[in-house]
Structures are given as C-alpha cells and as structure tokens.
From TrEMBL:
GO-annotated biological processes: positive regulation of metabolic process
Key words of the record: DNA-binding, Transcription, Transcription regulation
Gene3D superfamilies the UniProt entry points to: Homeodomain-like, Regulatory factor, effector binding domain
Provenance organism: Permianibacter aggregans
One GO MF term attached to the UniProt entry: sequence-specific DNA binding
Protein name in UniProt: AraC family transcriptional regulator
Domain HTH araC/xylS-type as annotated: residue spans: 8-107
Amino acid sequence: MQSIERFSKVLRHIEQHLDEELSIATLSAVAALSPYHFQRQFSACYGIGVFQYIRLLRLQRASFQLAYRDSLSIGEVSADAGYQNAESFARTFRRLFGQAPTMFRREPDWQQWHDVMRQLQQTREQMMNDSANNQATYQVEIRDFPETQLAVLEHRGPPEQLGKSIQQFIAWRRANRLPPSRSATFNLIYDDPAVTAPEDYRFDLGAAVQQSLAANDQGIVNKTIPACRCAVVRHIGHDQGLAPIVRYLYQQWLPASDESPLDFPLFFQRLKFFPDVPEHQAVTEVFLPLR
C-alpha cells in the first residue's frame, strides 16, 4: 500500500470518528504502520502533526457552531469540541484565533480564522490532489432541473470574508422563516478562487422562494435558475472535495460528451449541512447547466 493511500485512509478515519478518542495506536493501525514512526511519517507527508490536525478539525466545527448556530451555548460548543470545561476551550480558542468565543460569535475575525485554518485546508487539498492524480472519476447524471426562483445575497469580495455573508444570510432566513427544511438552499458559482483576484470574487447565497421579494435593506435580490438540463454529481463530504468535481466536469466530462454548457453559472444545491451533520456526511449536488 502506498503512503498516499495509507494516510488518506487515516484522514478519512479521523473525520468519521472525530468525536471518539483517536490514539496513535488506533491511527497507526489504520495506516498499517508502526506506532513508533507514525507521527513523524504523517508530519513528513502533510507538514502538520496528526494531533494538531485533529484539533483544527474540532475547532473548525466549534467555529461554525459559534458563528452559525447561536442556539448552542458556549458550554455545548466546548463539550462538542472535546474540552472538559468552557474555560479551557476559551483559552485555546483565544490563543489560536485572537478572539474569545463570545467575541467570535458576535463578530468573527474571518481573516485571522482562515490564516490559522490554512494548514487544515492545505492538507485536505493535498489529499484531494493525490486522489485526482490517481484519476478519480465521478458518476455524472443528466437531470431536468425546474425553473427555480431564488432570494439571493450576493457575496462580492475576498473568499475569506464569505463567512460574514453566510452569517447575514442565515439571519435573514431566520427572520423571514425560511429555514433549509422549508426552502431549498443554493449557491451560484461564478468564479474559481484559485485564479480570481480576491476583490473580484463572486459567490451567491440563495434560498428557493415562491414569489419575488420587495426591495429591502438587507441587500437580498431576486434571481432565477432557468429550467434546463444539467449534468449533476452528488458529493458527500467536506467542501474541499467540490473543486475537483468542478474541474472534472469542465476538463474531462464536458469535452468527452456531446454537450455544451448553458449561458448560466454552475451551481450547488446544499442538501445536508455541516455543522448540523458531521462534515463527512454533508451532502452537496453540483449542477452544470446544459443547452
């Protein structure tokens, strides 16, 4: 078994058992490696220690719970992150992110948060790239999509500030009684953040509605996904797994098909949400509109 495959198994095991005790003995057994050398081999592969990686995963979930799920108390969030009390959680959180959990809940410093979480993102991207190099393929389904009217908050600017827009959109949905259980959730994807200047980045947050909205002070606008045929791929897991699917559709599937893209952006439909479900159980469908 190649080292890439061994450590990919470890990363998947960590995500699927994040609330359990994750010991060196357990993780080295997953990798089929000696426990005496596992930590050094993991660090050499990803540039981050395995327990640091686990801590970042748990704190990422805690951060999303603080920012997006204000029904959860600080104590509940800290317990969910594996801390015995809220005080030790707060000390760790403040040391890493420069804000106490209560302050982060009110007004997160998303730039600082992304700076800290960059190692987590890079590790996952490396795993996804390794999978892509092994010629990963995806099951593509052609589906008729009905015309769908959306209430949209347009995020414009650095991707690192998307969290602030998400908070604003969640607050608007809550105030207008449009939870995801009643109103389907969509994202319109205009730009690739890897090749787009941060100030030019565009990303829409949308909720399905039955009728057009009146002008409002929250910046919510009306948009419509047209009725069309779409190439659809279902993704289960964290959002870092979405970019390889998009690349596959444009670079491999579309050129090999007899299809042409519609003059409308690619979009996502969010079916199961992190942190409401564990990240490895989040479900997103990727839609490429076709002529």
